[in-house]
């Protein structure tokens, strides 16, 4: 399955792009409306993009009243990205989403690098959310905070159904002229090609540790990038920064993925799933 990374596509302004995916992931929704961080919020770098959006969103009330009914018209599975500043924030939103059939899954954004971290651990957030909803829960983790494998194991034990790997990592860009921080918040989240080796390592390690379904994301530009993540243990792949420069990337990456898979002798892309773990799987 191919998705978008949360925050990298506005389906309401580009519905044709959203419909080229297998599911749409919303921007992160918080209990109350957030205006986000002060500008400058996005800066291009030689190796990707830095962002410091700060979870700008209309809040759960307006999301349910205004955005979700319009998203239903896409006729796609909708994954709602949920954020907050304590476990109760996440649980509250999960509870309110629980009766909406159009919502296929909830992605718990426990790792946004440019806002204050939640007061509780990822495991506590997952556990509280698990009690609040029957929907599948995917924990979105960062490779930058502590041991991502241990966090993944804790999320699994708390009731996560899957993992989204990885969120952006913290980065800084300086203005060429002034040598001052280019982002309004100085440090932001780095996405794009530079993230791929980090994402691959996180997917590889977390697959071995948990065997949970994984949405792999981070630096996907081509079908070959997607195939690498699938081989490392990602059941699904999300496109992020590439969608800003190439809104039609979904169709291109799909075609390239099929070609790259066939060129390596696989009858289907599914046959490449977790092939990097052949040493481990042969013992099962």
CATH class descriptor = Alpha Beta
SS element count, helices: 10
Rounded mean pLDDT is 95
> Which residues sit in consecutive blocks of at least 5 with pLDDT less than 50?
none
Per CATH, which architecture? Alpha-Beta Barrel
Instruction: Determine the N-to-C terminus distance.
Output: 25 Å
Tell me the helix content. Answer: 25-40%
Number of separate strands: 12
Instruction: Please identify which CATH superfamily we are dealing with.
Output: Aldolase class I
> What is the fold-level CATH name, i.e. the topology?
TIM Barrel
Principal-axis shape equals: globular
Write the layout of secondary structure elements.
Layout: E1 2-4, H1 15-18, E2 24-25, E3 42-45, E4 48-51, H2 60-72, E5 78-82, H3 87-97, E6 103-109, H4 122-132, E7 137-141, H5 148-158, E8 162-165, E9 169-172, E10 187-191, H6 196-210, E11 214-216, H7 223-232, E12 236-239, H8 242-245, H9 249-263, H10 278-281
Parallel strand pairs: 1-12, 2-5, 5-6, 6-7, 7-8, 8-11, 11-12
Antiparallel strand pairs: 3-4, 4-10, 9-10
Helix pairs in contact: 3-4, 4-5, 5-6, 6-7, 7-9
């Amino acid at each position: 399955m191919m998705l978008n990374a949360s925050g990298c596509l506005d389906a309401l302004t580009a519905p044709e792009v959203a419909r080229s995916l297998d599911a749409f992931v919303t921007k992160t929704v918080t209990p109350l409306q957030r205006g986000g961080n002060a500008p400058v919020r996005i800066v291009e770098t030689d190796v990707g993009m830095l962002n410091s959006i700060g979870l700008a969103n209309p809040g759960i009330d307006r999301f349910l009243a205004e955005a979700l009914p319009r998203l239903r018209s896409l006729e796609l599975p909708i994954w709602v990205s949920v954020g907050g500043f304590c476990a109760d924030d996440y649980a509250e939103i999960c509870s309110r989403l629980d009766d909406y059939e159009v919502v296929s899954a909830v992605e718990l954004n426990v790792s946004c690098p440019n806002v204050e971290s939640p007061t509780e651990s990822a495991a506590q957030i997952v556990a509280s959310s698990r009690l609040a909803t029957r929907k599948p829960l995917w924990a979105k983790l960062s490779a930058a905070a502590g041991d991502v494998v241990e966090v993944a194991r804790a999320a699994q034990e708390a009731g996560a159904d899957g993992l989204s790997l990885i969120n952006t990592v913290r980065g800084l860009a300086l203005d060429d002229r002034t040598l001052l921080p280019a982002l309004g918040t100085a440090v932001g989240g780095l996405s794009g090609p530079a993230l791929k080796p980090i994402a691959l390592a996180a997917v590889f390690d977390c697959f071995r540790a948990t065997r949970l379904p994984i949405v792999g994301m981070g630096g996907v530009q081509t079908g070959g990038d997607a195939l690498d993540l699938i081989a490392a243990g990602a059941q699904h792949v999300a496109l992020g920064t590439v969608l800003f420069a190439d809104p039609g990337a979904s169709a291109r990456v799909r075609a390239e993925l099929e070609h790259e898979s066939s060129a390596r002798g696989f009858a289907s892309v599914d046959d490449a799933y977790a092939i990097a773990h052949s040493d481990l799987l042969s013992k099962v």
